[in-house]
Every structure is written in C-alpha cells, then in structure tokens.
Amino acid sequence: MTITAEPSAEDLRRRLTDHLVAEGVLHNPAWKHAFVTAPREEFVPAFSLRTADGVRAYQTGEPEYLETVYRDVSLITQRDASGTATSSSSQPRVMAAMLEALPDADGTRVLEIGTGAGYNAALLCERYGDEQVVSLDIDPGLTAAARQRLHSAGYTPTLITGDGTGAHTPLAPYGALIATCGLPRIPAAWLDQLAPGGTIVANLGYGLAVLRLDEHGAAQGHFLPEMASFMTARTTSESVPSEQHDVTTLMRAVGTVTSAHVPWDVTGPMPRFLGAMLHPSATDLTLTDENGTTVHAITDAASGARARLSHRGEDARIDQGGPRALWDERLALLRDWSRAGQPGVERYGLTVQGCTHTLWLDTPDGLSWTLP
Ligand SMILES: C[S@@+](CC[C@H](N)C(=O)[O-])C[C@H]1O[C@@H](n2cnc3c(N)ncnc32)[C@H](O)[C@@H]1O
C-alpha cells in the first residue's frame, strides 16, 4: 500500500510561486520571496468559489481546503445578503502582475486601497517592511478581521477604515499606491497623496494602469498586458453597485436608428477594454431577442443614455437614445483601434491631470482621446 502525504502549505506556496514564474507574471526575486513566505491560508479561513456546479464553500480543516487556497484563483471571502460578492482574496496571477509593477526599491512607502482578506497587505509587508505599508478598506468588519489575521501571521502594517477614493491617509506622501478594487477614474485625492515620481497601479474597467507622477503633477503611463476587472469600489460599507437590469426594457428599441459596418466581435477583450474606458459607469449586456438576433445593449447610469447594436453579419443596426450616442462613441474608438492594426492593451496609455483623463496609443503625444 502506498501512502501519499498531503502537500504542506510550504510545498503549495512554492508550487504556486513556480506557476506564477512559469506564467511569466512573476520575475523579481524579492516578490518571489514574498510569495513563498506569506501564508495565504491565514487570511482565508472560509471562502467560496464558483465551480461548474454552482458555488462551493470551503473551510479550514476540510479536505481540499489547503490545495484550493493555493490555486491561482480569486477566493470570495464575503457576500452581502443578496449573495453579491463584497470582498475576496484576488487571483494570485493578477496580484503578481500588479505587485511587479510597483517600484523595485526597498523601503518604498505604499498605500493599498482594498485590504479585503489582507493577503496582499502581507505580501507588501514582506517586500517593503511592515512600517512602510498602509492598507485601507471601506468595510470596518474587514479591516478588523484583516488586522487580527495579519497580526497573528506576524505582520503589523497600518490598517485604516475609510473610503479609498477620497480619504487622505496619515502616512502620505507615498512612493506607491495600489488599488485592488475597480474604479471608473483615478480619484484626484490619489495624486495629492503621491510623492514626486510615485507610482499608481490600479484597475480601470478591464485595464491595469501603471502611472507615474511627473514634475507637472500629472500621472502618466501604460496599461499592463494582463487584463482584469476587480470588484467595483463601493461608496459606503453597505452599498454594492446593483447589477440588476430589466431585460424587457433592454430588449425594447430606443431612439434614433442607424446602421454601421461592425466587422469586430464587440464582446472581445479590446472592444470591452475600450468600451469601459469610454463609459465607466455603463453596463453592457448581450442578449438574444425573439428572432434569434444578438443584441448588445449598453445602459449608462451616469447619463441615462441607452443604446443597442444588433448584428447582421458584419453590418449592424443601431438604436440609441438619451443625452449620449453610446454606440456611435464606441464605434469611433474601435475604428481608430482597427486602423492602428488592432493593438493590444499594453500599447495604450493614460494621462491623468486633475480630473481629466486622456487615453493614448503608444505615446502621450500620439493618437489620443480625452475621455468624457
Ligand atoms: C478584491 S477585494 C481586495 C483583495 C485584497 N487586496 C486581497 O487580495 O487580499 C476588494 C476590496 O475593496 C474594498 N473596497 C470597496 N470599495 C472601497 C472603497 N471605496 N475604499 C476602500 N476599499 C474599498 C472591498 O471592501 C473589498 O474588500
């Protein structure tokens, strides 16, 4: 009889680290050390995962718990009464890509927005030292739990409860700011809290922007090749942005009808990235109507505009209403993308000056679009 020993947490940490290296998202020896050292299981005693059969819950001590903790997946650690996820331990692959984009300098003072489970804060403490790390979450229950778990794992960063989109935190200015909740735009408060030359790594729509603060007070830089979409930032600890839509309303035609040549899959990664950059408060839904036609509907909560695009081969029928012609705006950006040879996300960049966000291709003085 062969008895196979269960892999230990150390074995699993090493295996995950090797996987992240093989995936090409982890390179720096200092970050590799952080991933083989910080114990993810200390931060996620209970979580759930979406599987092919629905949602499955895991708890410490149960079979498969430890191996699942060290899978390269996001672990949902909190849901609200309606079942919507409100916190998680992010996917290690995305965490590694974002952490690698932070300054490679010991002792950098870092502000993390979105403490969540606290595992990312532990990795930051491993890399920069506990006294350099400030981590903030809007949910007091989460900061309390993360504080206790970080302390028992031997980490003592500064933890704050507050809204990371506006709060000015005590240890500013920072050499880097990393946000692990999704935002429509870079808040002006972030630029104020950065030291000259400081770095912002943040999720906007489906893009992960890496911006550096220049001597004129503008933050500027490219998007990472990795795409991801984090949980949207909440405005209070109770509120979760609603994803409920009335399908009957969405299927009803709106406003002006036009036609356009649309030779792209508008649900592909780059059209989705560009759409979210242009309409950060919009929801996209793809539905099939009673005639079997695929309809791509956009509803923009901020302006009240609505638009639908129905494909007929490479041609499309568009109907749109409200203060903005949402599909016209998107197709203009997609035509520029197509004319440029359909570049990947890493060729796009962003400049943030005050509240003005400018998207550009390759260089800030190249082809650019001021985002509304
Ligand atoms: C994806 S989770 C963070 C994951 C965490 N960094 C980790 O992997 O260990 C996103 C977190 O952002 C927090 N959050 C949402 N809106 C926020 C806001 N306005 N300010 C600060 N934190 C916010 C949520 O409560 C949630 O815990």
Overview of the structural elements:
By secondary structure, this protein is an alpha+beta fold. The chain contains ten helices and 19 strands. The protein folds into two domains: 9-222, Rossmann fold (3-Layer(aba) Sandwich); 247-339, Double Stranded RNA Binding Domain (2-Layer Sandwich), CATH 3.30.160. It has a ten-stranded mixed sheet, with helices on both faces. A hairpin with a 6-residue loop joins β18 and β19 (368-370). The longest helix is centred in the first third of the chain and has 14 residues, at 9-22. The mean pLDDT is 93. The chain binds S-adenosylmethionine. S-adenosylmethionine (SAM) is lined by residues 86-90, 113-120, 136-139, 142, 163-165, 180-181, 230-231, 233-234.
Distance between the termini: 68 Å
Helix content: 25-40%
Content-based structural category: alpha+beta
* Full CATH superfamily name of the largest domain: Vaccinia Virus protein VP39
**Strand segment count:** 19
Sheet with most strands: 10 strands, mixed
Write the layout of secondary structure elements.
Layout: H1 9-22, H2 29-37, E1 46-51, E2 54-59, H3 65-69, E3 75-79, E4 85-89, H4 92-100, E5 110-113, H5 119-128, E6 133-137, H6 140-152, E7 158-161, E8 174-179, H7 188-193, E9 194-204, E10 207-213, E11 219-222, H8 247-251, E12 256-261, H9 269-278, E13 282-288, E14 294-300, E15 306-312, E16 315-321, H10 326-339, E17 348-353, E18 356-361, E19 368-370
Parallel strand pairs: 5-6, 5-8, 6-7, 8-9
Antiparallel strand pairs: 1-2, 3-4, 9-10, 10-11, 11-17, 12-16, 13-14, 14-15, 15-16, 17-18, 18-19
Helix pairs in contact: 1-2, 2-5, 9-10
The structure holds S-adenosylmethionine (SAM).
